[in-house]
Amino acid sequence: MEAAGNGTGTVPRRHVHLAQVRYADLDPQHHVNNVRMLTYLEDARISFLRYGGGVDAGEEIFGAMVVARQEADYVAPLLPRKDPVRVELWVTEVRHASCTLAYEIRDHTTVYLRARTVLVGFDVPTQSARRLDATERAYLAQYA
Predict the structure, then answer these.
(1) pLDDT, mean over the chain
(2) 3 state SS of 48
(3) Dihedral (CA of 32, 37, 43, 47) sign
(4) Which of 27, 55, 69, 87 could lock 44 by a disulfide, CB 3.0 to 4.6 Å apart?
């Protein structure tokens, strides 16, 4: 998985979400459990899609979205820590009805996880895929 996906040679703008490691997140090996790491990604994704756009209260940029694919590479064990870990998120692809987000869970010295999620616009009443609208695409382009 690449760290930059905009094809211009520049690093894309990243949305940063801080995740606090909790005792309940640990597995018997005293590492953050792999499923909890995916929850950190979900929290960052919700932060990005719902609250990262600086919109007015009650206003949302995105309509319904569903996860179509998710992949993760666990690079290093994440151990209990006092300071939050950074979940950095950026956009690597925007298509007509979908987008791909890339993530790193990291601190200043270590990358613990690299991941990707493909999100698809979703029309709830028809239970089918929908095209992303111009506002959604413009917001995503800021992070590509």
Answers:
(1) 91
(2) helix
(3) positive
(4) 87
